Amino acid sequence: MAGRTFDGIEKLLINKRDEFLIKAALNGDGKAFSALIKLYKKRVVALGMSFFKNADDTDDFVQEVFVKVYTNLSKFSFKSSFGTWITKIAYNSAVNSVTRRKEYLPLANEELIQAKDLSPEEEEMKRVTLKTIRECVASLPENYGLCVEMYFFHGLKHDEISEITGFPVNTIKSYIFRAKKLLAENLRGVVYEQ
Predict the structure, then answer these.
(1) 52 near 62, Cβ under 8 Å?
(2) How many CB atoms lie within 10 A of CB 38?
(3) Taking CA 127 as the corner, what is the angle to CA 174 and CA 88, rounded to the nearest 5 degrees?
(4) 126/110 Cα distance (integer angstroms)
(5) Tens-digit pLDDT profile for residues 21-53
(6) 70-78: which pairs have CB atoms within 8 A and are 24 or more residues apart?
(7) Which of 23, 129, 151, 181 is the most buried (most CB within 10 A)?
């Protein structure tokens, strides 16, 4: 119960901080907008790395997203969290770009999953594990994989995924549940083959 109270307080503080920075940015304070970028850039980069195969395309994507955020900042209505709003802009931008390019690399790239002081054997094990998981997620039906990625790899809640994708919350829960069953079966098959 105490954890839930702390989470609620933390969310309230984040929303208040963002509200202050947004209002300052709308009043012409460039430093306030820079602070918003700094706070949410990792989230946008992680999402971009899920959709693009290289850092250059991801950098272009991140710039495009923050230009859209800046030009649409006055439209932010404070009905959702600012992080969810930015993620929705990033998601829509990525989907539009992928639709144009027909490229998609599921899962946040392994460079984003930091591990310190790994031995060469552990590094190889991490690389092989990520490759296997990436292949299993890629084999899921598209909407299943998308929801799994957003939920597990980007840490978004069901209602945030719903707001970003337009899928109903119960559909998202169903996709994730079914995806977990499929992943368990696929990963079990991979383990037994080796």
Answers:
(1) no
(2) 9
(3) 40
(4) 9
(5) 999 999 999 999 999 999 999 989 888 887 776
(6) 70/25, 70/33, 73/22, 73/25, 73/26, 73/33, 74/26, 76/22, 78/15, 78/19
(7) 151
CB 108 within 8 A of CB 51: no
135 in Cβ contact with 169 (< 8 Å): no
CB 157 within 8 A of CB 173: no
Single-letter code of the amino acid located at 59: D
Reading the block at residue 108, the tokens are: 């946040």
Rounded CA separation 116/133 (Å)? 21
Instruction: Using the CB atoms, write b or e for 126-136: b if 16+ within 10 Å.
Output: eeeeeeebbeb
Q: What 3-state class would DSSP assign to 79?
A: coil
| Nearest-angstrom CA–CA distance, 60 and 70 | 15
Amino acid in the structure at residue 90 = A
Q: What is the pTM of this model?
A: 0.60
Name the E strands within 19-154. Answer: none
